[in-house]
Amino acid sequence: MASRFQRKVLPLIPLYILLIAIALLIIYPCVWMVLTPFKTSSEVWSTSLRSLIPRHFSWELYREVLEVATVPIWVYIKNSLVTSLGSVAINVTACILAAYALARRRLIGENLFILFFTAMMIIPQQVIAVPLYLVLNDMKLLDTYSGVILSLSAEGLSIVVLYRFFREIPQELIDAAKVDGATEFDIIRRIVIPLGWPAVTTVILLQFIASWNAFIIPLVSTISQEKYTLQVIMAYFSTSLYVKFRLIMAVGTIITIPSILIYVLTQRKIIEGMTAGALKE
Predict the structure, then answer these.
(1) Nearest to 207 by CA among 165, 262, 167
(2) Is the pLDDT of residue 280 over 50?
(3) Which of 33, 94, 42, 44 is nearest to 254 (CA)?
(4) Contact 251, 237 (CB under 8 A)
(5) 281 lies in some domain
(6) How far is residue 144 from each of residues 141, 170, 209, 227, 275, measured CA to CA in Å?
(7) pLDDT class for 211, splitting at 50, 70, 90?
(8) Rounded CA gap, 211 and 203, in Å?
(9) Which positions ≥6 away from 145 have C-beta within 8 Å?
């Protein structure tokens, strides 16, 4: 028994210690952000580890968050939900059709299209800020939900993930459906989407998280405070003269918790969808 412990368990102890240390480094900023709104100003700027936990928990700051802006924070939450869910609906629908066409129709330049959509993921949003503003202004979509939703929907990752999965669907199933008189939309609705549901679920979750956390695009696409999202309103608490640090941490907590919960509850599906179609039998 002792030899088995020395042979299998003992060599893994340094690895577990390293992983625990890395996990603590990652978790510490999140814990600090969540606890900061409950602290006093002196505790916020203290470098002592004992100041990590507030001496007296108080919800007064969160009440201030609800009242400090000229528009209630529930409006910003609604804006974030509307734009995130709207971008998910448009992005997933368009990307399913595009990925199916690329994967099953064998179009000329198929690899170039996939390379283009992959390259879209490495372009910083700051680069497209000014062109995006000019386009939305010309289309009369500036400071509208439609402008924000359409801008957030332009995401290439969804096509890449779905394309890889749709290529693995047996062609025999599609041919049999066509023999039975099914149209292309029937095939997508009754065969492709059900078989590709792990990948579809993945792109839904990733697109929602990306849209919920987006800052540059909602900032450029909106003018009036009534259309701001939660990410944009965080800038409201920071000026050239004063930074309302505790308020920023409070809003940051409100923004971060849904993303963390969604990822924790669905991480298995996300991993399955990202790796689906990567290996062949």
Answers:
(1) 262
(2) no
(3) 33
(4) yes
(5) no
(6) 6, 43, 21, 7, 37
(7) very high
(8) 12
(9) 79, 82, 83, 86, 227
Could you give phi then psi for residue 243, rounded to 5 degrees?
-115, 120
Domain contains 139: yes
CATH of the domain at 239: 1.10.3720.10
Instruction: Answer yes or no: do 32 and 96 share one domain.
Output: no
CB contact at 8 A, 215 and 232:
yes
User: Tokens standing for 223?
Assistant: 């003018």
Q: Is the pLDDT of residue 240 over 60?
A: no
Print the domain residue range for 31.
2-58
Written as one letter, the residue type at 258 is P
Per DSSP, helices labelled H in 121-244 are: 129-138, 145-153, 157-166, 171-179, 184-187, 193-195, 197-212, 216-221, 230-233
pLDDT digit string, tens, across residues 85-109: 999 999 999 999 988 888 877 777 7
Q: Examine the pLDDT at 61 and tell me if it is beyond 90.
A: no
pLDDT of 241 reads: 53
